[in-house]
Design goal:
This protein has one helix and four strands. With 79 residues, it is mainly beta. It has one domain. It has a two-stranded antiparallel ribbon with strand order 1-4. Strands 2-3 form a two-stranded antiparallel sheet. The relative contact order is 0.28. The model has no long low-confidence stretch (mean pLDDT 93). The structure holds FE2/S2 (inorganic) cluster. The site of FE2/S2 (inorganic) cluster has 12 residues, from α1.
Length: 79
């Protein structure tokens, strides 16, 4: 993980089925999704790719300490 550059609370987003790349570097301009900024800034961490199987909302971890990455497990409340 890089230095914290955004809010540590999760981002809740409506998803459709398919492979999603969730930003783990915090530099994306399209949070919670990766926009390739990790490569442009060479921050040493990349996205977690996850297959979404059905329509619905997901809570994407932004503190990067969840034990269920890329999804929130409530750990941000203990930081
Ligand atoms: S932009 Fe953050 S992991 Fe890709």
């Amino acid at each position: 993980m890089t230095d914290q550059i955004h809010d540590t609370r999760p981002i809740v987003v409506a998803e459709t089925p398919g492979k999603k790349a969730y930003c783990m570097c915090g530099h994306s301009g399209n949070l919670p999704h990766c926009d390739g900024a990790h490569a442009r800034k060479d921050v040493g961490v990349g996205p977690i790719v996850h297959e979404i199987t059905e329509n619905g909302t997901v809570s994407v971890c932004q503190c990067h300490q969840s034990c269920n990455l890329p999804f929130c497990d409530g750990t941000h409340n203990k930081l």
